[in-house]
Design a protein that fits this description.
Porin, nine-stranded antiparallel beta sheet
Length: 199
């Protein structure tokens, strides 16, 4: 009988010791980091979240332009032309603007004198500038004529290169500007140009 009581007490003692060890182990494990230094727990949120894809995207606007131009020659006579352009501009996070457009000559361009020169039908335009507050400051540069070897008889490019537009940055914003350039040799270039932003 005594041996049975001793065996029972011994089993109970060992069970108590094992439970105590398990409890101590569980407590230590709950207070320790299973990942060594330099290894991040994938279950924890990142301290520096990666930027959203939208913040890295460029802001894009479509742009349309119309320009009625005339070129009065110092030897007499003049040429007129009417152009329409469509293109797109992109704004970087720093506010820089880069873009491109294609201007096409509309029917009705004419000179009031005979000319052997070939009238340009298309003009490739580079658009540059910057964002200033809530406005876009735009400039336009000629980047090629089509057909090759053709000339701009109506003076579109002469005035285009001098235009500076400031336009509010929102869809549907418009700006219009007249321009007149008189050269000392008697050449006169004039235009009325309108631009419009869209999405």
């Amino acid at each position: 009988m005594m041996a049975d009581v001793r065996g029972w007490k011994k089993t109970l003692l060992w069970a108590g010791i094992l439970l105590a060890c398990a409890g101590v182990g569980a407590f230590i494990a709950s207070r320790s980091n299973p990942f060594p230094p330099g290894v991040r727990d994938p279950a924890l949120p990142s301290e520096s979240p990666s930027p959203s894809s939208s913040s890295a995207e460029l802001v894009r606007w479509s742009i349309t332009m119309s320009s009625r131009t005339s070129h009065t020659y110092h030897v007499g006579g003049s040429c007129t032309s009417d152009w329409r352009a469509r293109g797109e501009i992109e704004l970087t996070e720093s506010g820089r603007i880069d873009g491109r457009a294609v201007a096409r000559l509309l029917p009705g361009a004419r000179c009031d004198f005979p000319s052997a020169q070939v009238q340009a039908r298309r003009v490739i335009i580079s658009i540059v500038g910057s964002r200033e507050g809530d406005e876009l400051d735009l400039r336009f540069l000629e980047d090629g004529l089509r057909p090759l070897g053709s000339q701009d008889l109506g003076g579109f490019l002469q005035t285009l290169a001098t235009l500076r537009f400031s336009i509010p940055e929102h869809a549907g914003a418009e700006a219009s500007k007249p321009k007149r350039i008189e050269h000392p040799d008697g050449e006169v270039y004039a235009s009325v140009t309108r631009i419009r932003l869209g999405r």
